[in-house]
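Today's session is about reading a structure prediction critically. Students often jump straight to the picture, but the first step is always the sequence itself: look for stretches that repeat, for charged clusters, for runs of hydrophobic residues. Only then move on to the predicted structure, which in these notes is written as discrete structure tokens rather than atom positions. Here is the chain we will use throughout the hour.
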Amino acid sequence: LIVCTARHDERKGIDDLIFAVDHLVNSDIRDFILKITGEGQETPKLKNLVKRLGLSEFVEFVGTLPVEELAALTREADILIAPSKGREGFNRSIANAKAAGTLVVATRIPGQTFAYGPEEVFGEMCLPNNPIDLAARIKDFLALPDEEKEKRRDLGRRYVEENFSIEVVAKMKVAAYERVIFKKHYP
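Below is the predicted structure for this chain, in token form.
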């Protein structure tokens, strides 16, 4: 089970993901289903692309899900894909997936690299706007031995806990406020 949880707008790269799926299917990798959550102005175009490429048995649009269902789907997934093309802030989908023990394939863009973590630990990120590279990363992750998958899942959970827990984020916010207050009173 592969999942993509994103608004359907052009910068999210869902079209690149669909082309990557087409590449996988044409390379005889067919033992997966991609579930795409969310909606947006690109939804009709993306659905037409899936239909035009003949990928309906491999790609399912599940719409906008309640938070509990989205969390359950993310937890059940083997891989979460974050194929964004750019202009991302901190990508919560990546952090949520790692916290749930789900492997993540993501494009190497600002806003995703911090949430993703070190590539030498979690695997190489892929190039944005490159469906062939995205397909290669997905193929690599699907082919990982079970022990490596479990190791990366555990490391991902730990990475999120150490970097994005409530306590860590609260300390970072307090430190940021202290810097601003200090600069204001002691220029």
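Discussion point for the tutorial: The two ends are 54 Å apart (CA to CA).
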